[in-house]
Specification:
Helix content is about 25%, strand content about 25%. With about 325 residues, the protein is of the alpha/beta class.
Length: about 325
Amino acid sequence: MVGQADYLEIRDDVKHWKYKNLDLSPILYKEPASLYTGLYNMEEQDHEMNEILDWKLFEAAKPAIENGQKVTASFDIKNTDRTTGTLLSNEISKKYKAAGLPDNTLHFNFKGTAGQSFGAFNTNGITLELEGDANDYFGKGLSGAKLIVYPPKQSLFVPEENIIIGNTSFYGATSGEAYIRGKAGERFCVRNSGAKVVVEGVGDHGCEYMTGGLAVILGSTGRNFAAGMSGGIAYAYDVNGQFESLCNKEMVDLDALDAEDVTVLQKMVSDHYEFTKSTVAKFVLDDLENQVKNFIKVFPRDYKKVLQANKQKVTVK
């Protein structure tokens, strides 16, 4: 029935005054069909699903999925390779449900420029390591996997001064971790509710609507950071003292780090250095006692109240 406007009839029994001058003829006009197009889908489209990179990942991963063996493999990747690891995660979830595979069962290395949604909805047991860069929606809906990205080893540019992943990364992520040597675009960790992520700078609207998880920003941020942020925690590396003016403080407090925060931060930055060999991470770790003073804890106000109330309950018991 798509495009068959001639099957619609205008009712003449409606007396409402709004109907009096209503002309529906532009909506009911039926465009004559040409010999080549038609008015609806008349031929099957080939989306080349049999050519997608994930089928190669799935083949490589069979020993892990079927027998629990650890698998490591390497692949080239290009910007038309989208949602890398998503189909594979679906196959894993069919068998292992939400539990997925044990950590680091699958470790896939990639070289090149990844298309949109690299690592989207990737589940437990998968590690995707990318030497190159990636487009928007990196880590979207991340569900337990580990993502690592760093520039090509032969590149001459300074990683922390350049964008390496696109906009809206980790949108709706629920769990997992990621280490990004370089900057992210806008809306980093928007609606993140559980992933733990390290990055070396972000654009505007970072951690927008975040409800859980942890974000470590080892660099500058754009404006409107933490807008609508109701949960989770962010640690911002504020060397130039500009962060407060760029942060939306409507729902968050900006606090100094306590001893527990320093322990968490040190672990995240140490892992970041281990996986990416980040010079920023090494600098912070080598001078941790002093550099900790440059970090600001972004702490959602209501979330803080809940944690404090729970701590008091434990103390009373």
